[in-house]
Amino acid sequence: MTIPAIGPKRPDIDPKIPMNHEKSCAGVDLFRTVAAFLVVAIHTSPLASFSVTGDFFLTRVLARLAVPFFFTASGFFMISCYSCGCERLKKFVSRTLCIYGAAILLCLPLNVYNHYFEREPLLPTLIRDLVFDGTLYHLWYLPASALGGAIAWYLVRKWDYKRAFAAAWLLYLTGLGGDSYFGLTEQIAGSIPALGNFYGRLFEIMDQTRNGLFFAPLFFVCGGWMADRGRTLSLRQCLGGGILSFAMLCLEAAAVHLFGWPRFDSMYLLLPVCGFFLFQLLLQWRGRRFRSLRTFSLLVYLLHPLMIVAVRFLARPLRLQELLVENSAVHFLAVCLLTSLFAAAWAWLEPRFRGKNCEPDSGSKDTGRAWIEIDLSRLLCNARTLRELAPSGCELMAVVKASAYGHGAFRTASALEKAGVHAFAVATIDEAAALRSCGIRGEILVLGYTDVRRATELKRYDLIQTLTGFEYAEELNRRGIPVKTHLKIDTGMRRLGVPWDRPDQTEAVLSMPNLRVCGLFSHLCCADSPDAADIDFTQEQIRRFYSLTERLEQDGFSVPKLHIQSSYGLLNVPGLRCDYVRPGIALYGVHSSPDCLALRSPALRPVLSLKARVVLIRQLRTGESCGYGRAFTASRDARLAILSIGYADGVPRSLSCGKGRVLIRGRYAPIAGRICMDQLFADVTDIPGVSIGDIATLIGEDGGAALSAPDVAWAASTISNELLSRLGGRLPVVVRETGGAPDGTAAQSR
To answer: Which residues are bridge partners to 695 per DSSP?
Structure first.
């Protein structure tokens, strides 16, 4: 079933919003292949047969951008401040070293052919090559990635980007003195002997300075910075800056070669600048990622030396040496073609041997004990229905706090964002940062308190902070960091916000220079109540809110975007002038409790089901007891099913001793005795045929019967909001799509 997009077409993203790595990197992925073939060009010199000068600018200038691009891309996806802790670094380094080990084994025949192991002394040479230079000329990139990535990660985490850049530039300039500017370094060393001694000692440890210590960290830091800051340049700036910097790079390369300075020519002063403009240009190309090109480009990089040897070896018996070897352009094309064939075959076969990965955030599909089922089609149908209830031009701000009421914050936000929702609300800055780290690009409002000392993080992650009071606004403003905010107005709930009858405070906040107040909102505290007094109070809250906005307009203030309706405000008080509605519990297809007032009853369907397996059947004779405190005593011969779920999984213990029930084989079975931490008893005496392995439904539908979250919550003396948000984090999640079909028939999503 195709779900229409929800809400108006999304406008272009502010270029300063941090990049969504999943949706904004099509250009980066496509250029990986180009960069890989530029590396092949370095080692085959495709224009050498036709123009020495042309080949120089192709292989010694243009192609030198390839490896810095790879480093920058790795930093973009790994160094970014979105990644918490060092898990991403560990994964990157371990994966890189595993690839390095496999590449060493792959290239072992070439090492034997080149008499590598006959070098003296072998052990120091081997150690030096393993750490810095690579055991074959192109393999230096892999240890450089691991070492450079670790250094850059440490610099960014220890300091900030400004000081990390300074340290990385210092390392790069040190490496530059041993590479393209080595001749200049030798001239200066005539006056400063210590400089010559430094590089002399350095080259006893490594052959080149284009390695993970001096070359790679700068590009890793640059990539991480761009991931956190997003696209900082326009297309025109990228093109202009790129053309100018590349022209200057060509002049620099020609000049250093004219002076005879290079020891090698892998590093130039303008190379990082040119690489920056190139990467910014690639970020202009937004679209879904081409993940398969990562594997393909890596294989091209690793395999091409073997293919160079293969082309030269095959040319002799085929008597095509003049064409395939001596003609540099044909030689380059032949190597590229042969490498592409092997790389494509490998890239196609490898996932079939390894098996497919689960979809991101889809959770484990383990249904052996207990699990949660999430129906994303119902979620999208609910969102579309709620959007239709809202006034024209009013957008959904999906409330995904507390792990989206137990439904999974990223899973929920990602599905909604793809369907056109681009505003979300959470409770804490950490919830918001986690969404950003997973690639959610839309507006994210933090509804709760955030320590003002974390203002830098609010700006870094491009979050919107709720101003919880006048004093809080003053304190946040004094931090001197421009922050997006929404001002909470207290219209009677007496929880958070500036009092509605203090317009002077509201106007003062709107005038604070470091607070970009882009929203004004309140919360209707009893919009779900059928009590006449509560209905009157809700109307009074609305009157207070809009009287304040009118006062602001009269005083000459531009009123920011407004929102006052949450789920029950939308259902019971339609037609209010707002820019957002904030559905929470209604988005997930349930009411807070069975007695909630809902003047409008749209066709919302529950998104979440909770299920468990029957793991054992117990027979009890009359008078026998079971469980903690022997709280259940059989009044007749009884048959009990033991379910592998308990209060540690979020099942309220207050449902013990018959207050709660479960569905098995489409029939209700009361909970017997006290609910344990990891198990519970269900009395299935009156349900014939129940056996080990059967599925019990604690929330959801089975065979035409249902246990709704509001009913379960009511039996537990709570509300659906609390019940769902407390479901245990140890429960695996199975994502299903039924299209919202009335029968609830589910088919596991691919």
So the answer is: 613
Number of CB atoms found within 10 A of residue 358's CB: 10
- Tell me the CATH number for domain 375-588: 3.20.20.10
CA distances in angstroms from 372 to 364, 670, 696, 700, 732, listed in the order given: 10, 21, 12, 10, 6
The whole-angstrom separation of Cα 410 and Cα 440 is 8
In the numeric block, the tokens 């790879």 are attached to 70
Higher pLDDT, residue 386 or 729: 386
Q: What is the pLDDT of residue 159?
A: 84
Round to whole Å and give the CA distance between 522 and 544.
10
* Active site members: 401, 628
For residue 356, give both structure tokens.
């497919």
Question: Helix 66-78 to helix 271-283 angle, to the nearest 10 degrees?
Answer: 60
Residue type (1 letter), 523? H
pLDDT digits (tens, 9 = 90+) for 326-339: 999 999 999 999 99
Tell me how far apart the alpha carbons of residues 736 and 750 are, in angstroms, rounded to a whole number.
9
Say if residues 720 and 709 touch (Cβ distance below 8 Å): yes
> 434 to each of 343, 413, 441, 491, 597, how far by Cα in Å?
36, 11, 12, 31, 34
Distance linking the first and last C-alpha atoms of the chain: 14
> Has this prediction a pTM greater than 0.70?
no
Instruction: Give the residue range(s) of CATH 2.40.37.10 domains in the chain.
Output: 608-707
- The CA–CA distances, whole Å, from 458 to 423, 430, 461, 471, 695 equal 16, 10, 6, 18, 45
For residues 535 and 529, is the Cβ–Cβ distance under 8 A? yes
Distances (CA, A) of 264 to 52, 249, 253, 350, 721: 18, 16, 11, 37, 65
φ and ψ at 450, to 5 degrees?
-130, 130
Q: HEC string of 678-732?
A: CCEEEECCCCCCCCCCCEEEEEEEECCEEECHHHHHHHCCCCHHHHHHCCCCCCC
Residue given tokens 């056996």 in the structure block: 691
Region(s) of the chain under CATH 3.20.20.10? 375-588
86 Cβ neighbours under 8 A, 6+ residues apart: 153, 157
- Which one of 2.40.37.10, 3.40.250.10, 3.40.50.1820, 3.30.420.240 gives the CATH number of domain 608-707? 2.40.37.10
Sign of CA dihedral 554, 556, 557, 561: positive
